[in-house]
């Protein structure tokens, strides 16, 4: 049985030229809002990682690399970025038109505003402050393709957001014992308009899921994601860096 949900049309930047051999269906990237630059990802033990700097606001860039509409359910720290529910793939998400790219800049507060995504210490993350710290440190998308219209299919029953919320999803097991050091906070509100639409999913399970993990620099070094800095001999402190006593600032007494 196909399902339909009220979803949001993400606000909008249509790419002029679709990429060739598009894979995955939706490209997931994170943008540092201070610089406007994408945060480079690093691969480590089969996972993609980025460095998050506490206090920095960021946006999540979603790009539909296909010629069909797709629904993207966006999870930040295990929380649905639109509804604030503990994330499950059956929930509402953003609808992207063919070849469309958009930036999601925060937790959706209304059809007109979001609260900025901002890297912060774990205790001040939105997930931890709402009693859900177990999945802090991961951004994920579940992508659904749209059902093709068919003349013989019966009308599809409307599924409300409350109905979608009843779907459950097992929390992913934490594969590492090392503690997460930062999360995503609930920053200041800002203007970010969207509008509702409907989307009939081609299946009840996602066509694909993508995860992108993050942590602070020191934590990434400790995890082995970033190599430990190598100190050359000239960087070592010296007990006798000069032969004589230099004059103090301002000269003699």
Description of the molecule:
The structure is a single chain. With 253 residues, the chain is mainly beta. It has one domain. 6% of the residues lie in helices and 37% in strands. The chain has 3 helices and 16 strands. The protein has helices at residues 126-129, 161-165, 217-223, and strands at residues 4-9, 12-14, 26-32, 42-44, 47-51, 57-64, 70-76, 79-80, 94-96, 100-104, 106-108, 113-121, 138-145, 182-191, 195-200, 208-215. The strands form 2 sheets. Strands 1, 4, 5, 7, 8, 9, 13, 15 and 16 form a 9-stranded mixed sheet that branches. Strand 4 and strand 5 form a beta hairpin. 34% of the residues are buried. The model is unreliable at 9-22 and 150-175 (pLDDT under 50).
Give a quick rundown of the structure.
The protein is mostly beta strands. Helices cover about 5% and strands about 35% of the residues.
How is the secondary structure organized here?
Layout: E1 4-9, E2 12-14, E3 26-32, E4 42-44, E5 47-51, E6 57-64, E7 70-76, E8 79-80, E9 94-96, E10 100-104, E11 106-108, E12 113-121, H1 126-129, E13 138-145, H2 161-165, E14 182-191, E15 195-200, E16 208-215, H3 217-223
Parallel strand pairs: 1-9, 5-16
Antiparallel strand pairs: 1-15, 2-10, 3-6, 4-5, 6-10, 6-12, 7-8, 7-9, 7-13, 11-12, 12-14, 13-16
């Amino acid at each position: 049985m196909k399902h339909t949900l009220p979803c949001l049309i993400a606000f909008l930047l249509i790419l002029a030229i679709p990429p060739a051999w598009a894979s995955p269906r939706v490209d997931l990237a994170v943008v540092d809002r201070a610089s406007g630059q994408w945060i480079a990802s690093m691969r480590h033990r089969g996972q993609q990682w980025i460095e998050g700097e506490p206090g920095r606001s960021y946006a999540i860039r979603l790009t539909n690399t296909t010629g069909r509409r797709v629904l993207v359910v966006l999870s930040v720290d295990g929380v649905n970025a639109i509804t604030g529910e503990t994330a499950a793939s059956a929930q509402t998400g953003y609808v992207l038109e063919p070849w469309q790219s958009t930036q999601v800049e925060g937790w959706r507060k209304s059809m007109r505003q979001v609260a900025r995504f901002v890297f912060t210490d774990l205790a001040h993350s939105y997930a931890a402050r709402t009693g859900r710290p177990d999945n802090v440190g991961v951004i994920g998308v579940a992508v659904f393709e749209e059902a093709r219209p068919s003349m013989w299919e019966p009308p599809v029953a409307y599924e409300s957001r409350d109905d979608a919320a009843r779907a459950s999803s097992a929390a992913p097991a934490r594969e590492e014992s090392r503690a997460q050091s930062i999360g995503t906070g609930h920053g200041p509100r800002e203007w970010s308009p969207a509008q509702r639409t409907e989307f009939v999913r081609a299946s009840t399970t996602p066509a694909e899921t993508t995860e992108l993990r993050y942590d602070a620099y020191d934590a990434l070094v400790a995890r082995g994601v970033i190599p430990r800095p190598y100190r050359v001999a000239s960087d070592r402190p010296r007990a006798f860096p000069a032969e004589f006593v230099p004059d103090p600032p301002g000269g003699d007494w």
